[in-house]
Amino acid sequence: GASLQVGAMFRCSARCCEDSAASMQQVQRCIERCHAPLAQAQAIVTAELEQFQDRLSRCTLHCNDKAKDALEAGGTEARVRGQLDACLATCGDDHLRLVPAMAKKMKDSLAALQQ
Asked: Which residue stretches, if any, does this entry annotate as coiled coil (predicted)?
């Protein structure tokens, strides 16, 4: 898991510092190599979550547009609010269903990093 990766990163970084013959620059480069897998892992997770958030955001904007159109077409506020609530609830439900697939995708991508 993630804690395993963090531990490996610290052990790797510590080994970089043990080489007394290495220059500061070599030690620095060695440490950067140790941090790379964790940085990649964070980038994978961040990208997936941002994509998920964007999709949810687009869905809620779509609901807001529909509500605005319905109000402009003469719908009563109570009725439009009910439709908006239902639309937003659907967005939530649809996106909750995407979570397991998103989690699997992240897990697979992270596993591929450790190969």
From this structure: none
In the predicted model, residues of the chain with pLDDT beneath 50 are: none
- Residue 63 CA to residue 101 CA, distance in Å, equals 24
> Is 23 exposed, middle or buried (CB count within 10 Å of its CB: 0-12, 13-18, 19+)?
exposed
* Interatomic CA distance for residues 9 and 30, integer angstroms: 11
> What does the DSSP assignment read for 15-82?
HHHH-TTS-HHHHHHHHHHHHHHHHHHHHHHHHHHHHHHHHHHHHHHHHHHHHHHHHHTT--HHHHHH
Task: In whole angstroms, give the CA distance from residue 105 to residue 112.
Answer: 11
CA dist., res. 96 & res. 86, Å (int): 15
pTM of the complete model: 0.74
Q: 31-64: buried (b, 16+ CB within 10 Å) or exposed (e) per residue? A: beebeebbeebeebeeeeeeeeeeebeebbeebe
